[in-house]
């Protein structure tokens, strides 16, 4: 393992049980029946525990849309051409995409991270230039990228985390953009969880049955050709992954090292989380799974992570749309923890424990 990556992983510590107990004690003292706000209570507690400070407040929220292209697109696995990746990046920058609408409503900023789009973007507000290469190779014929490229994509995700932490953001969300990226994500799911390709490969952007069967065949072929080592997630990433998947893995690792919660979006973001957790199992405690995607196979990955999704809205857009909603819910949980009155403060008689 690279020295910088090993050092980063070693800096990720277990959560402070003392803060967890204090947060639970405060929640139990609020003017409500214990546990009556369900997951909102858990989210408020998770936020302060991850931050390592009982008094921590959500200051600034940001959704990172990691964008990259994929060589496997030439196998006909998507309903859209590769050029749509760059076109959608411009749409994000203009504020016209689904994630922009949801982020504006939930009070989050949106930053596009160009980690591997096959297009040159001029320096523009709202884009973080982190390009490792102009997209991956066709994983059905050989490795998607070199091991060095895979490690660099992870490092760029870590750099994003540290850069925005220095700008006082303390709640992150991971999103994605990349035509064809459900195919490498399915391959990552299959390689790490051991499930066969047909159980983790869905229709993505809405391909027909013939294209779906071709896509499953491509995922199986990529796994057979490259034989990724499930015990080495960097090997999985470089052989059948994507640059945005590596970037998201780096964001998750960087967030954990900084004590910043990372809200994970859907199918592709969860693939990044699988890579990160495979590298450092302690990272599980620092991520929040925003929603269960309607995409086939997502439940398999969530189960492997041991992560309970907050929502099930039949969403499958990506971009960080579900994660933006999840961040807003975590902020709401933090507000409940801090702003709701206790029984003592409100001079309300506390109920007895139920028998």
CATH architecture of the largest domain: 3-Layer(aba) Sandwich
**Name given to the CATH homologous superfamily of the largest domain:** Nicotinate-nucleotide-dimethylbenzimidazole phosphoribosyltransferase (CobT), large domain
Structural class of the helix and strand makeup? alpha/beta
Query: Domains counted in the coordinates: how many?
Result: 2
Alpha-carbon Rg, integer = 20 Å
Describe the sheet with the most strands: 6 strands, parallel
Number of DSSP E strands: 6
**Which stretches of 5+ consecutive residues score pLDDT under 50?**
none
Determine and state the CATH class of the largest domain. Alpha Beta
Number of helices: 15
Mean pLDDT: 95
Order of helices and strands: HHHEHHEEHEHHHHHEHEHHH
Work out the helicity level: 40-55%
Net shape: globular
Beta content comes to 5-15%
CATH topology of the largest domain: Rossmann fold
What's the quaternary structure here? single chain
* Distance between the amino and carboxyl termini: 54 Å
Strand adjacency order, main sheet:
3-2-1-4-5-6
Topology (SSEs and partners):
Blueprint: H1 3-10, H2 17-29, H3 38-51, E1 61-68, H4 84-94, H5 98-106, E2 109-116, E3 127-129, H6 147-165, E4 171-177, H7 182-193, H8 197-200, H9 209-226, H10 233-240, H11 243-258, E5 262-264, H12 267-279, E6 287-289, H13 298-305, H14 321-339, H15 343-346
Parallel strand pairs: 1-2, 1-4, 2-3, 4-5, 5-6
Helix pairs in contact: 2-3, 3-14, 5-14, 6-10, 6-11, 7-9, 7-10, 7-12, 10-12, 11-12, 12-13
């Amino acid at each position: 393992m690279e020295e910088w990556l090993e050092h980063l992983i070693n800096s990720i510590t277990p959560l402070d049980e003392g803060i967890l107990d204090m947060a639970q004690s405060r929640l139990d003292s609020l003017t409500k029946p214990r546990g009556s706000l369900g997951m909102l209570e858990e989210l408020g507690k998770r936020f302060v525990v991850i931050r390592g400070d009982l008094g921590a407040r959500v200051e600034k929220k940001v959704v990172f849309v990691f964008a990259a292209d994929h060589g496997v697109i030439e196998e006909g696995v998507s309903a859209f051409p590769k050029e749509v990746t760059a076109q959608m990046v411009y749409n994000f920058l203009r504020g016209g995409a689904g994630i922009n609408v949801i982020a504006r409503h939930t009070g989050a900023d949106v930053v596009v991270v160009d980690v591997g789009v096959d297009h040159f973007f001029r320096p523009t507000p709202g884009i973080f230039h982190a390009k490792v290469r102009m997209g991956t190779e066709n994983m059905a014929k050989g490795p998607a990228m070199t091991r060095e490229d895979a490690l660099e994509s992870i490092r760029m995700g870590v750099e994003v985390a540290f850069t925005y932490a220095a700008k006082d953001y303390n709640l992150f969300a991971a999103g994605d953009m990349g035509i064809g990226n459900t195919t490498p994500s399915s391959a990552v799911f299959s390689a790490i969880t051991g499930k066969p390709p047909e159980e983790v490969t869905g229709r993505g952007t809405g391909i027909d049955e013939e294209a779906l069967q071709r896509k499953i065949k491509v995922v199986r072929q990529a796994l057979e050709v490259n034989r990724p080592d499930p015990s080495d997630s960097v090997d999985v990433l470089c052989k059948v992954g994507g640059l945005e998947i590596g970037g998201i893995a780096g964001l998750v690792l960087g967030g954990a090292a900084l004590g910043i919660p990372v809200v994970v979006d859907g199918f592709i973001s969860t693939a990044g989380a699988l890579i990160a957790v495979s590298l450092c199992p302690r990272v599980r405690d620092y991520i929040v799974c925003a929603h269960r995607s309607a995409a086939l196979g997502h439940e398999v990955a969530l189960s492997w992570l041991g992560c309970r999704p907050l929502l099930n809205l039949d969403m499958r857009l990506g971009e960080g749309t579900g994660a933006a909603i999840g961040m807003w819910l975590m902020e709401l949980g933090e507000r409940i923890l801090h702003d709701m009155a206790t029984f003592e403060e409100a001079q309300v008689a506390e109920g007895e424990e139920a028998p």
